[in-house]
Amino acid sequence: MNLKRPSPITDSPLSRALVTLAAIVIILAGMRFSQPILVPILLAAFLAVLTSPAVTWMVRRKVPLAIAIGLVVTLVFAFTYILGSLVVSSAEDMIRSIPDYERQVDEWLFSLRNQFPWLATDVRSSLQSMAPPDNFIAFAGRFFSGVGSILIASILMIFILIFMLYEGQGLRSKMRRALGNDDSVDYTRRFTKLVQRYLLIKTLVSALTGLTVWALMTAIQVDFPILWGTFAFFMNFIPNIGSLIAAIPAVILAGIQQGLPGFVICSVGFGAINAIIGNIMEPRLMGRSLDLSTLVVFLSLIFWGWILGPVGTLLAVPLTVVVKIGLEVYPKSRWIAILLSE
Fold this sequence. Notes:
- The chain is mainly α.
- The chain has two domains: 35-169, no CATH class; 182-342.
- It is 85% helix and 0% strand.
- It is globular, with a radius of gyration of 25 Å.
């Protein structure tokens, strides 16, 4: 007589959901704990996706693979080193110039006090409460110490990039042998192409934004144009709010240096750059299918910033878009990608 054995409690839907939730929590905690290693790996992966077409192009033109990878890595390292040196130098000059800017603000408030005594007093007290010099310098010190740790990890990132570029040349044949299923190979190929297209277009548009901001700051003679152009380049990876964050310090400095005309010109310039590049050019190149809702962008900044630290805020939207692309190419998970869309 066969009696049906009762299902254990672990087979219930609630138990499976709890086990899945516990596994996700453990994975996220492990990612946060392994942040010093995970950040260079992710940065190297994004660089590998961006630079692998150049390696493939050279290999197809009979350039040896080792030489092609060496040239690409050398160019990436040289560009990063030169830009990083210029940005750090500009940031140090800006910190040393803070007392001069304070004196300019005091002179401006002194002239304003004669006409509007109550307004000048309120503005001065607000500035002191919002950004005391000691707190700003301490924040700048913590920021650049974080940047220094990233620069130390750059050696590890370069080696990871070399191996990723080398392995990437045979990845397609490996995937075909490993998966076997034509549908799986097709999903993987579509995912790779979409991710590569997104990162390439986003990087080029961000670079154009940074160059335009640099040209604007240089034209209106605002100090440290390289710093503001680089800041705009990185903030452009954050849609919706990134352009606003990039504009605030540059506009304030333009107002301190050149008064109301500089404030207005800089504000109008940033608005024009955001309208032309961010609202017209980028959507045409990118397509609406890769857009994320504003809520998803905000939550991704919090989530990836908590997991990966300051670098996570810069990689938050690209990482979320990569996840969205992965959900979109697979039919059974496409509904989740639609929920993440704008």
